[in-house]
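Continuing from the previous page...

OK, I double-checked the sequence for Succinate--CoA ligase [ADP-forming] subunit alpha against my notes and this is the correct one:
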Amino acid sequence: MAIWLTKDSKVIVQGITGGEGSKHTKRMLAAGTQVVGGVNPRKAGTKVDFDGTELPVFASVAEAIAATGADVSVIFVPPAFTKAAVVEAIDAEIPLAVVITEGVPVQDSAAFWAYNVAKGEKTRIIGPNCPGIASPGASNAGIIPADITPQGRIGLVSKSGTLTYQLMYELREFGFSTAVGIGGDPIIGTTHIDALKAFQEDPDTDAIVMIGEIGGDAEERAAEFIKANVTKPVVGYIAGFTAPPGKTMGHAGAIISGSAGTADAKKVALEAAGVKVGKTPSETAQLMRDILS
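Thanks. Re-ran it with the corrected sequence; updated structure tokens here:
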């Protein structure tokens, strides 16, 4: 069991013929992901060979779904074309669109998210600027390395790609049901709360790791949700304890203003909801280790 991505998921890649799309399609295939094709209107009708696995290239997401039954799209297109690619996926009503692209203009993210809402939110969007989603031993959609951890019973939701990998590695003796990298942009499609709700409802997830970072109030809202709705143990980490106020750190959304959005404020909110919060990733992993042991 996993959330949103399973061994039966059929994946297409928008931008399959580009450098990043091609490289990571090869890695997804090696991980056992059912990649069934790609989309590039200029190369429709051709095939791309990945070490003996030939994948067809379609003109549109709708055409790819009709031909293959795809239910997941991983989007590797340049920032200037990302909005159009996501809108195309929404129009095709693909259930899951994973937007890997970094540097998408915030107004474009706002536009395609508003479009998705107007169309009835039939597509779950993960990202943009995210590492994707991985259900170890089942499927991998994005750029999360497939050999960090085995299948297990921890769920992970994270704003940070690198910290996703680190916590997966540090807790590899327990393994993960699903790891979701939601991205660190100011506007993202899937939130901590969405993932927490899904993990709470997943019978094969026993505990949850939540990684946040400075800026905004997403973690405070997640804390309220946990307090009211989550019965499984949650441990957390907030990146940016040493960040100076008023300075953007890494992710576009990671900026603090006054006392709002600080790591300490988020830590206090989470601990008030019963979440154990580590000061470092390793300390966070140990907190989970203590719970599961």
